[in-house]
Write a structure and sequence with these properties.
24% strand; SH3 type barrels; 16 helices; disordered C terminus; CBS-domain; alpha+beta; 13-stranded mixed β-sheet; single chain; MgtE N-terminal fold; 3-stranded mixed β-sheet
């Protein structure tokens, strides 16, 4: 490990790609696993939690890490693909150490308190890696935006080996804000329940909504129950209506009704309408917020709408042209315009001139199999759902379909999941 730096901070490791000896990327670093010892004794770093195959997490022992440089981690390539399961004797550096309240000795024996925002590791003489330094921030004072920071030796820190009932989640929440929602959800899912709830509370409503949509159903319900009713209603409003409806269905009826009453009436109406359809039908799985335009809109208007970064690729693939009103349920659906066709037309022409009116529409009672057959028949990634009067109710996308076709809690059932390792 001659090229490996003598000291590496954990927060800088998170997200780094992991490579095998041939230079092929095999995963990304998500956390460090350590074995805690007596107070003041440097913990041994057992290995890294790596994310492979999308969202599956495995354990990479430090004995199989050959090099760490700026922006890369290299391994021997011999990895155990069993899913990582944390043991009771192990601690996650990012997941459980950040935001711990500790006391540190600085200067001429001065003792101050603060919260941990990073931890560094270094190789020991016996080739093991150990935690060596702790970065701590004091509470803010007066009008200062941030408290003073200190980076001290492990032996000068007290409080990391015991349970901290006051442990916050500011720094871990900040780290999750930098990740994609699916990656943040993966980190959140692997935390102990109490810590998971604390971190969820520290996220803002919009970010928490994005992360909830990527979590297994059981985690969604657990986190929502940990919020007060007003906050839970606010988070549901930030979720897409179809995901919010799925989550509300899993709540006890009395809790669901309380939250729906607290939501803004228009948001609650969309959720109630989606909940009124039979499960595993087009109506139950559709989103009620596709891109909808009137017949007088131009191609330029349509392209401006589909550029919205908050749209999924599937929702951005089609523009739905309807008569007024343009909120679902709309006026009569006139047709759909494919984004590929829009890109070939002059921007100033009307979108109504680029419609594909040859497709069959889906009805809300269509089964999962019927939706799948429809998308496959017409080579679509999205399709409109209309009522008996031809009004647009919403759109089913291929990702909506997969969510309903995959096994329950599929996000937590990655191939090869077994306990144990090494």
């Amino acid at each position: 490990m001659s090229a490996t730096p003598s000291r590496v901070f954990a927060a800088r490791l998170v997200g780094l790609p992991i490579f095998d000896p041939q230079g092929d990327q095999v995963g990304k670093v998500r956390d460090l696993v350590v074995s805690m010892r007596a107070e003041g004794t440097q913990p041994r770093v057992l290995g890294m939690v790596a994310e492979v195959f999308g969202r599956r997490r495995i354990f990479v022992p430090m004995t199989r890490v050959t090099n760490i440089d700026a922006g890369h981690v290299y391994t021997t390539g011999l990895l155990n693909m069993r899913r990582f399961e944390q043991r009771s004797t192990e601690t996650l550096v990012i997941g459980q150490m950040l935001d711990r309240t500790v006391t540190i000795t600085v200067g001429a024996g001065t003792v101050v308190s603060g919260t941990v925002y990073d931890v560094a590791m270094e190789p020991a003489r016996n080739r093991d890696w150990v935690l060596c330094r702790v970065a701590v921030r004091e509470p803010s004072k007066g009008f200062r935006r941030r408290g003073q920071t200190h980076v001290v030796e492990w032996r000068d820190v007290s409080g990391l080996t015991r349970t901290d009932e006051r442990q916050g989640a500011t720094h871990l929440a900040a780290a999750l804000n930098e990740m994609r929602p699916a990656d943040a959800a993966s980190v959140l899912h692997d935390l102990p329940p109490d810590r998971r709830t604390a971190v969820a509370l520290a996220l803002d409503d919009e970010r928490l909504a994005d992360v909830l949509e990527e979590l297994p159903d059981s985690d969604q319900v657990e986190i929502l129950k940990g919020l007060d009713s007003e906050r839970a209603a606010d988070v549901l409003e930030e979720m897409s209506p179809d995901d919010a409806a799925d989550l509300v269905r899993d709540l006890p009826p009395e809790t669901a009704e309380i939250l729906l009453e607290l939501m803004e009436p228009e948001e609650a109406e969309d959720v109630r309408r989606l909940m009124s359809y039979v499960e595993d039908t087009a109506g139950a799985m559709m989103t009620s917020e596709p891109v909808i335009l009137g017949p007088d809109a131009t191609i330029a208007d349509a392209l401006a709408h589909v550029r919205n970064p908050e749209l999924t690729p599937a929702l951005a693939a089609l523009v739905y042209v309807c008569r007024q009103p343009l909120e679902t349920p709309t006026g009569k659906l006139l047709g759909v315009a494919h984004i590929q066709r829009l890109l070939r037309e002059p921007p100033s022409t009307l979108v109504a001139g680029a419609l594909d009116d040859s497709l069959e529409w889906l009805r809300p009672e269509a089964s999962t199999d019927e939706v799948a057959a429809h998308l496959a028949t017409y080579n679509l990634v999205a399709a409109p759902v209309v009522d008996e009067n031809g009004r647009l109710l919403g759109a089913v996308t291929v990702d909506d379909l997969l969510d309903h076709m995959l096994p329950a809690n599929w996000r937590d059932r990655a191939p090869g999941r077994t306990s144990g390792r090494r």
